[in-house]
Structures are given as C-alpha cells and as structure tokens.
Amino acid sequence: MSVRDYLRERFFPHMWCPGCGHGTVLNALLRAVEKLGLDKSEIVMVSGIGCSARISGYVDFHTMHTIHGRALAFATGIKMSRPELSVLVPMGDGDALAIGGNHFLHAARRNIDLTAIIMNNRIYGMTGGQFSPLTGYGCFGTTAPYGSVDHSFDLVELSTSAGASFVARSTTYHVIELAGIIEKAIAHRGFSVVEVMSQCPTNFGRRNQAGSAVEMLETYRKQTVPLDSEAAQTSPEKIRRGVFVEKKRPEYTEAYEEMIRSATGES
Amino acid sequence: MSRQIEFVQGNVACAKAALYAGLEFFAGYPITPSSEIAEYMAKRLPQNGGKFLQMEDEIASICAIIGASLTGRKVMTATSGPGFSLMQEALGYAVMTEIPCVIANVQRGGPSTGLPTHVSQGDVNQARYGTHGEHAIVALTASTAQDIFTLTVDAFNFAETYRTPVILLLDETTGHLRERLEVPAADGIATVGRLKTTVSQGVDYHPYLPREDGRLPMSDFGGAHRYNVTGLFHDMWGFPTENPKIVYGLIRHLVDKIDHNADQMARWKEYYIDDAPTLLVSYGAAARSALHLVENRRKRGEKLGLLELQTLWPFPHELVREKCRHALSIVVVEMNMGQVLQQVKLAVRQPEKAFLANRIDGELITPTDIQNIIHVIQGKGV
After folding, report:
1. Could you give the dihedral angle defined by the CA atoms of residues B246, B252, B257 and B260, in that order, rounded to the nearest 10 degrees?
2. I want to staple B64 with a disulfide (CB 3.0 to 4.6 A). Which of A77, B90, B143, B276 is the partner?
3. A11-27: per-residue pLDDT in tens?
C-alpha cells in the first residue's frame, strides 16, 4: 500500500500554516505505518484539540477528534475495549502536558499499549501563540510578552520517570530517523512516547527571532545530537535525539486479561 | 424458579441493574457517596469478562467510557457533585457525538465539597444545563432500591435508543439506604441492544445520517467501517463543517430527538391523586417522606395525593399539567431551592398555586417538615 492510500485526500489542502512541521510528522507517521505493513482498519487515531489534533482528520484510519487534553483517556477506553487495535495518539505540547498532563502521567504509569506522539512546537498555535509548558524560560508568546518565567518540562525525563516503556525524541529535520523511531514506537508493546520537535514559524518562530521555517529546521540540525554520538558527550548543552528507553514492562491490557482469567477461575 | 430477593443499598441496586442491562465497561474515580457502585463493579465486571477501570480523575473516567462505548460496549460511570462538575465538558462531547453512556450522580450537599455524606437534590439543574451550548439531556431518578433497579435499566435503554448520555440522579439517602430488592428474572425487563448498521464492510457508512425514524445506526469503532468522530459540528460523514444549514440541522436533531420523545421517556408513580385538593409532587429520597405523609394523613381522612416523578429531564410538562389539573394547591417537595418547582410552575395552569416544601441543610426532609409547610400554605400556622 502506498503512503497516499492512507490519506483522506478529499480533506486536502490541510489547515496547517506554510512552513509548519506537523505535515512532516504526518508524513513520517504514514511511512512508519506503511513500513509496518499495517492495514488502515487495524489503526485507531485519537487526538485532542489544537493544530496537532487536526492530523486525525487527514488519515484514513478509525479516527476520533476529542476534547482538549483528554485524548489519552478516550484512547484508554478504546484500547481496553479492543486491545487488538493499534492506537495512535498524536498530541500537541500544551494538549499533552498542560491540560492533559495528568492523563499523560497515568497512561505512562499503567504502561498501556498506546503510541503517544507529542508534536512539540513550544506554543499554543491554534489560539494564536500563547506560551506552553515547553515554551521555555525567557521565550516569548502572546501571554509572555516580557519573556516567560515558566520553566519547561523535559519530556523525555518526565515520560521515563512516569513509567513509559518506550521513550524517544526526534525532529522534523531528521525525517528518516523520525519515521524509524515512530515505527519502533508503534511496534513496541507498552506505552510509547515520541517527542517530535516540530517548528511553528507563525507563532513561535516569529516571536522568538527563530527565523523562517527553513532556519528553524537548520537550528534542529545544529542544536541536536544523536544520543549515542561523541558529540553528545562533548556538547552537553545540545539536545539529544534517539531512543532513550526501550524496555519490557508488563503491559496494561495484557495484565488485565490475566486478571480476568484469575477472576473467572480460568487460570 | 425461586425469586431472588436481596437486602441491598440503592447504590448496589443500581450496579446490579447496570449488569442486568448488559454493562460491559465501567470507569470511575472514588467519591462519596457513590463509591459502592465502583466497588461492586471492580468485583463483578471482571468475573463477567467485562472491564472496570479506576481512572486518575472523573474527567478521564467519562472520557474512557465514551471511547469504550464507541467500540460497541454498554458503559457507565458513577460519581457525585464535584466529580459530576468535572465531567461536564465530556458530557457535552457525548451529546454532540451521540455516543450512548450512563452517568450516575449520587447527589450530596453542595456547592463545592459541600456535605460529602449528606443528602441533597441540588444537581437537577446541573444535569440539564451543566454542559455548555444548546442541547437536551435525559435524567432519571428513583426513591427505592427496587425503582433504582428499574430506572437504571431504563437509563441504559434510553441511552441506546436515543444515542445519548443518560444521567441517573440518585442521592445519598437512597444510595446508602438498605432495603428489599427483588431482582427481576433475566427476561423480566426488556433491554435495548445497540442499533447497528446493516451497511456491509467495504460500503460507505455514514455515521451521522439518520434513518427515516430519526435513529442513527452505529458501527463499532475499530470494526468494519472507518469513520471520523468529532466534537465539532459535523456532517453525515462525521467531518467538521461550519455550513450554517448543517449546523442548524444538527442542533435541531440533538434537541428534537430528546424533546420530541419526552412522552416515551416519562416515568412516574402516582398515589391518591384523583381526589386530592392538595397534591405533592416529589422525587428521589424526598418522595419517600412525601409518600409517608400522604399515607398517614389518608388514614385520618385528609385528602393528600402524591405525584412521584422519575423522569426529570426531559421534564414531563404535559404529564404534570394533566395530573395537577384538579389540585387546589401543589406542593413540590425537594431538597434544593426549588429546581423542580420552577418546571412545575411552567407546567401547571395556575403557577401561583404551586408551593415549595424543601430542606437544604443536609438533613432528609421529614413527613413532619412537609406537614408543617402544608399548614403554613393552608393558613393554619405551624
């Protein structure tokens, strides 16, 4: 099946701004799905609210566009009911970590087999550029006109300590790497987190002198290093990319089926 | 076959009825005075191959059941006032996306944390108006364990028939009161299964295209048909639209499918109403005291009657108007500041004849309280 077959082309053109990184995430996601050879009917995509959430409208899977921050809670109900389905949950940084932060922590703690893809553009884009939990200290947004005094989460550390059994980070510059990471994340049995640094030239870039979309991508190239590279050792100030956590932990729906067998006296 | 008679709390009667109605999936968060429902489900659902989830909060709980319902399960959550407040946004999502679910709100004193272990009926209007935007809702209540059982089955049936969330407005007194429950035989109360589409796999399925009778057949999400669901205004494919005609059509559909079937959903009980110049209108725990008073006074020759409402939303205005036709005074007995009284005044021909007998101090209203208020209304003093 070609990547194009996964798209609902009648809904194009998409609503993302010129230069937005989210289309690149969609591209990498579909290539990962194609590589895994998944049928469209085996995949559920549940999204929340925001620019990121609109991704669910463009893919020809079973798609549910829910309410702000709660995509993982809806996805938990779907996955518990139909554990055989692959459930993908794309979210924005505000969606996943501000309003949805609690659901994110608890989905990771349960290690339920969902693939959380956090499209981190460091801003609330759809509402016009307010600062998010990943905007960063000193950076600007419409609600941080003097520079934000809020510090950011480190999404990788947060996910790891909350119990996610697959944690990775990549960027929209590193498209081949990104598709490979998403492929691994979907194939992983357990709660998988992929942070994708995805540029928002319209609302983050413009207010933070980050330049055009191309310049922002260039920054991703220069300011990030592979996790296991020598540069990661010599330049600790740079952001590390790659797979940080990939481990086996009891998966929630499997543990639940085991519990049902015990409750019904089958085991 | 021997009859199955039990001595249970109203909350347990509710939980048993949910399983009787075919519940397969429950998600909840602990809160007094509803927790017994979750505890019952935690034990029983896995034994039936069903799923019980304790989520991180009430918001996650209602979202999880909506997700599970879409995949074809009968679902429920249970909570009390503060949790019900948290659920309001997702409740609106279930209204908009027309996903069947049942939400039990075992009412306690509010606002805020209020009186966690005391009775109240303060959430009648929240059930109706709590979520934002124009919409209609179904809310049922009951005063005995037996009726809680019946109305809980009704709640699941209405949820499936009308593709809507249904709210069960129980209260602390009826939820915790232990009394006799005769569990109906397996075929004793009809249960409504999900209306599923006859469109075969590979053929275009329109999730939001009503049939001629107005009902929308469902396709289990993740199954034969791929479609989109959104809380945005949407077309018959489930895709977002801002087309004014479609927006208008959808909002009319959401409201009309409930309001036009108010008669079908009206549930009530009546006691001695034909010759009663003074008619009590009540529901839930308050109706127990009202009935006690009516039966006591009847023995003394005083002609009191009682109309006990079990469907609160859509409010049965026609029914109330008809039943109150001959009454010289109508006394609405409830444990709030007159939330049902407002509706009764809208329903009856002479609203100035409708009075309130209430208690809002966390104590169950007693027959004596009601009697005293009737005396005041009748100008007899207390």
Report:
1. -150
2. A77
3. 899 999 999 999 999 99
